[in-house]
Amino acid sequence: MNYVRGLYVVTIFSVFLIGIGLILNPFYLHPDGGGTKRTYHVEQIENKSMANQAFGLSEKILDCPGNRPCVLEEQILEEDSVESTVPVYNDDPPWYSVVRTANGTYIPKQSAENNTTILTLEEVSAMTAVEQLAVPAGEQPEETQKAIETGSVTVYGEVIELFERHEVLEYEGDYYMHKKYEGVGSHWTADGGLAIARAILFLIGSGLVAASGWHFRSLYD
Q: CB 3.0-4.6 Å disulfide test: which of 99, 115, 171, 192 passes with 137?
């Protein structure tokens, strides 16, 4: 009889713990809030071909010819430099990080001399241009570094703007680019699905806790 009673107590206590676990589901069931699923894949830039792929995606690249006329850039290449009366300061950013033409890849340079702005284009290798484009991954959100270290990262209900803009990343001396998406779309946690699931689990958990409490009391009545 004592064995049966002990087994009964263990069963009731187990049900109680399960109920508590279900009540606490927000701490382990998508604590990030869930939502639309996005998987970002990252790849290391190892050669010129991969660098050109990164150039084709980056918003910091000006392709000539491209989406807009490159009159100024073509003039600079023809004349080696162009002077402008528009003032410029040494800490002003260039008009684009990299300019790419059919004949080469260039980094914009600008300087001030006698109240005149001098604009030039310095031809560089593809990998040097990658360095010019790169932003330090160490200064970015944790998900960014995780993507680099593991090859991909999946997030729910959020967008990693850095990858959406196809930024080139520098991490421990190497360079990386956002390669592709996978599984972009709706997830069961989106559109209130997570809140409903949490509420159901909470109610079930509360019921189990209440039932186990009632059975505990009945043992001593």
A: 171
Structure tokens at 9: 């107590």
Q: H-helix or E-strand containing 141? A: none
Spatial distance between the Cα atoms of 187 and 200, rounded to a whole number of angstroms: 18
Is the Cβ–Cβ distance between 82 and 76 less than 8 Å? yes
Total-model pTM = 0.65
Cα 67–Cα 70–Cα 71 angle in degrees, nearest 5: 145
Q: What is the pLDDT of residues 41-97, one digit of tens each?
A: 999 999 988 888 888 778 788 888 766 678 888 888 888 888 877 655 444 455 678
Domain boundaries along the sequence of the chain? 37-185, 191-221
d(CA 211, CA 203): 12
Whether residue 55 contacts residue 129, with contact meaning beta carbons closer than 8 Å, is answered with yes
